[in-house]
Amino acid sequence: MSLDTYGEYTRLVFFLLADRSTVAGHTLAVFTVNRTGGITRGEVIFRSGHVLRVFEQLDFVAHRILKYSYELTFQGETLWWYDSMPHPTVPELQSTHPHHKHVPPDIKHQRIPAPEMSFTRPNLPFLIELIEQPSSTS
């Protein structure tokens, strides 16, 4: 699973979601914004009713995700989200800086470290598998 080229990453996204029994549909698209960069944007709709909103800014020359946001909702309610917005003054997040997850009950301000997130490997396989586990979506 690679961030090496636009074509490879597009195939990864397509094959990750193709024929997956837990996925009812998706609007994910990977598109180029210049000669070296791309954006992944859209939603993955799960048969359970959960919706994963995805945004990634990619650099295919540096083989990196530059920034991201992944938000899981159910019936219009946000359950959690991951983002890469730096919070250098929050000591609890320094172990995985800038990767963190927003969690209830004060979802906007309650953040925990997110060691599973990365700028150097695709995050979508982890997220899809996480959402497929019933205990992770509540």
Descriptive overview:
This protein is an alpha+beta fold. The protein has 2 helices and 8 strands. The chain has one domain. Strands 1, 2, 3, 4, 5, 6, 7 and 8 form an 8-stranded antiparallel sheet that branches. A hairpin with a 2-residue loop joins strand 5 and strand 6. The longest helix has 12 residues. The relative contact order is 0.17.
Please supply descriptive tags for the structure shown above:
138 residues, alpha+beta, eight-stranded antiparallel β-sheet, 8 strands, 15% helix, globular
DSSP summary: helix tally: 2
Kindly report how far apart the N and C termini lie: 28 Å
User: What is the β-strand count?
Assistant: 8
Q: Please, how many domains? A: 1
Q: Beta fraction of the residues?
A: 35-45%
Considering DSSP H and I runs of 4 or more, what fraction of the residues is helical?
10-25%
Rounded to an integer, what's the Rg over CA atoms?
15 Å
Largest sheet: 8 strands, antiparallel
Topology:
Layout: H1 6-17, E1 23-26, E2 29-32, E3 37-46, E4 50-59, E5 64-74, E6 77-83, E7 100-102, E8 111-113, H2 124-132
Antiparallel strand pairs: 1-3, 2-3, 3-4, 4-5, 5-6, 6-7, 7-8
What's this, in brief?
The chain is α+β, with helices and mostly antiparallel strands and 138 residues long. The chain contains two helices and eight strands.
